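quick one, 394 residues, struct below
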Amino acid sequence: LLAFRTPHVDFARYGGLQSIYAVVNAVIGGVGFLFGAFMGGTFADQGVTQEILTNYGDAYRYVTIASGALLVLVVMFNPNGLASEQVRHMRRLGSAVRRLPLLRRLPIRAARPLLLTAPTASARPHPSTLEVSSVSVSFGGVEALAGVSLSVHPGEVVGLIGPNGAGKTALIDVITGITRDYRGNVVLDGTALDRRGAHRRARAGIGRSFQSLDLFEDQTVLENFRTASDQRHPLAYVTDLAWPVNRPLPPAAAAAIHELGLLDTLGMRPGELSHGRRRLVSIARALAAAPSVLLLDEPAAGLDDESVANLGRLIRRLADHWGLAILVVEHDMRLVMQICDQIIALDFGRQICQGAPHVVRSDAALVAAYLGEPDESPDHAGAAAVTRATVETA
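---
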């Protein structure tokens, strides 16, 4: 903040002791409360408290001692800071205000219990078709994608396969709007999305999971779902300063929690869960925003055989019963062959084959992409035979 106010920032002002004072004031005020910054700031250097005590001789010299004693009391009796008590009292006042007839229409209603019911028709997304046409992407002199086209229809699972560096995640980044500098077209239900940013594409109905999960580790599983699905009324940014309200989860988020069996994890943080459960939380968080098209980036990475089988059944349920259009990027060929209606293979950003699983499994270009160009050596021929057998078995 100081950098915006003055042309030069004097970091010498912020020694070790001054940093400790800043932390002390933040804890006293209440970390996580906007009102906490106001209350903690009164004890800061040249703050309100010091200015008042200046009128009483040298009394301001004892501000540091007083704030230290207050810190001990706050940590012992109210670890959430002074602001939490003020918010509690303001909520009581808010309950009385909400009963006034003139204010009943304001969006400050008391929170209702979480809606965690079985999936219903209202919780399921509007069916949409994703069409990608001749998409090309270059990063400097590297061509990540070259004229890739595909379509994913409601209730259909399309697999996107290829060796590392083939451009699979790059295509997902284009579809979701993370990569904006590309050639070609991305269309959702006849509406072009090329001029829309990532947030507008998400609101239009495109959701994704990440290969690295990217869960908010400092939040609970429930808070992760709220982050993905909370629909705020415009007035909430004002009213929540005085009456913060946790509204019930939207039907899609509740349905996702029910479908993926995550009810018992809502109060836990992602770091407390097994890798398989973290994968499910990542997928459920994507579903919480009620997308019509779901993009899964290597959802089976790091899972054991049983977990992979359960994941495959889940993906098929989301397509068959929820009507989602699903694009799956995956290296597990057995899973891809079992759950996908169509498969598209990429190599160095180019489509090398496309079709139903029984067509793709016998494609020589696909085997060559994974193993390199065939040669006459016995070792290479044996490796190719093993890979081909794995694909055909799947």
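The beta strands are 130-139, 142-152, 157-161, 183-188, 191-192, 206-208, 293-297, 325-329, 342-347, 350-355.
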